[in-house]
Amino acid sequence: MADILGKLELKKYELPPLPYKIDALEPYISSQIMDLHYNAHHKGYVNGANTAVEKVDKIIRGDIQGYDWQGVVRNLVFNINGHKLHTMFWNNMAPSGSKGGDKPGGAIGDLIDRQFGSYDKFKLTFNDVMKSLTGTGWAVLYYDKETNGLVMSTIENHFINHIAELPVIQIVDEFEHAYYLQYKNNRNAYLDAWWSVVNWDNAEKNLGKYI
Ligand code: MN
What we know:
3 strands, mainly alpha, binds manganese (II) ion, minor pseudopilin epsh fold, single chain
């Protein structure tokens, strides 16, 4: 037990470095959006996750009385998922001209072709899924090891529609903070532009952990 705990040192959540410069996704995603999105929103989720974990620790120690577990858990999950989903989202994009917007190859390309017939057909379908989201959330492409199939879905907010065990292969942020400064209320224009920075190399890397 002591040996295991020695290796499993408790750590705090941290804001990971962006895999490219803040203006690298221009003109599809402006540097103003990226700056706020990464340095304010994502950092806020990291701080919120650490604060939420501390709060649970205080409750366990008996330092806080009269807490509301429903609210505590909701806040904890909202912030931890907010942090983790954004980390995936940054890596699922790349500057146009350097992987960004390229067609999928490798195993992910094969899976897409088998299931959808072609990448163009996949794009049409995933566009429909993305555009079907009402309110705030994410569009997600999962892989299900049980069927060897891809599953398209949306996650409302940061957690509603979560599917257990299915790893995220590709994800798109549809919160207003992801596009409003540049695209105003035209979310579809942002979603159309996202295809120019999608990073299938990273999706292939994600998939490789599970097949
Ligand atoms: Mn976001």
